[in-house]
Fold these 2 entries.
Entry 1:
Amino acid sequence: MNLDNIRIVLVNTSHPGNIGGVARAMKNMGLTRLYLVAPRDYPSEQADGRAVSATDILAAAVVVPTLDAAIGDCQFVVGTSARERRIPWPLLDARQCAERMARASSREQVAVLFGREDRGLTNEELQVCNLHLNIPTSQAYSSLNLAMAVQIVAYELRMQLASAAASDVECENWDTPFASRENMERFYTHLEETLIDIEFLDPKVPRQLMSRLRRLYNRVRLDEMELSILRGILTETQKWVARGRKQDS
């Protein structure tokens, strides 16, 4: 396990005090890498005040305009979600997710996404994730402050480190690095284009096809060689379609 390979990503945070609270929660548990996607008000004295002795986390925070910029180089992405989705995604609690993230972090870049205070992550943002993380709460009052949610996840990661429970058997024995999120997005674009070319996907009535295919490939986790093979198959498929259309014309 390598905490330095795990980043906390806050998406469109509204209140700067919450960013400071997150920084403090991270430092408590030994996490140092904070990414801020288009925060509404940052930098801010309010964030510095809430961070207390964790202003170094804020000083090193990476501020980016888009989620793609924050996670493009990551191979394993976890999105926090409190809602049921139309298409169910692999859903684990914080402890189970921490185990998976600990294993992945030994050789991969790992990102944990936290959404907006009022509505969390969008469906589109959650679809780039390998897993969804849900923190079970009382039905009587299920609302968690952003810093509280980060603290829970960071604590579970710390416990993995303290107990040395995460032995990365999967990654240690793998011969090729897992695909980065940036390369996966290129693959999904290529896949959609090819499905349209062969008339399997109607762009006017897409239904949930690409969402379900995203869920499939995110669940399997492709390595770079496997991704290259699939991209090659898509390219050759497109060539055959082009030849067929040329002959027909």
Note: Residues 175-248 form a domain with the Helicase, Ruva Protein; domain 3 fold (CATH 1.10.8.590).
Entry 2:
Amino acid sequence: MSKHILIVDDDALLRRSLAFNLEQNGFHTRTAASAEDALALARQDIPDLVLLDIGLPGMDGLDALRRFQDHLGVPVIFLTARRRELDEVLGLELGADDYITKPFNLDVLLAHIKAVLRRSGSAASVANEPVPLTIGDLSIDQAAHTVMVAGRSIDLPPKEFDLLYTLALEAGHVVSAGDLLARVWGAEFRGEPQVVYVYMRWLREKVEEDPQHPRRIITMRGVGYKLVAQGS
């Protein structure tokens, strides 16, 4: 099974280039333009390794590193344009597994990635296997990729499953279409909310008793979507 790498950088061209090249080298990738989106993605689908830029908008890479350590324990390689020695010392002392400065050679980066993955092994992935979620009479097991609604097994394609799981992680809270795009489809889909609308319609056809009058996945007009518990 290919290793899952989460790429976190606000440079869209770099994200696309890195994702393409890593996929060509046998890795599975997801991308995020901010630390906040990256942490949400990682909670949804724990990566084997994170490539993390330090200079991010909002929460910076050093703060994000603490969150990845505290909540997920996944290895992190810093990607940064900062050349100050202090950044390297800080990053490694805080627990980053490696550090590489932009611009970098792809072969060098691949060597760093493989070395960190060898050191980390599979222990972190096993220890942090997602716990099944229960919201009312809805149960979602991410590891087994199964969904139960009122005692019935529901078969969902991958993207619809990810969409439901993302809403379940924020059950009772509104998630905007933009956040759903970033967390389920990746940073490159920002600005294409119609993707969410289409998949949301398909998802409701499977989990709602009356898809035209949904009670589980509620639309908060002009704000986003909220998963609400039904039954018990």
Note: The chain has two domains: 4-127, 133-227.
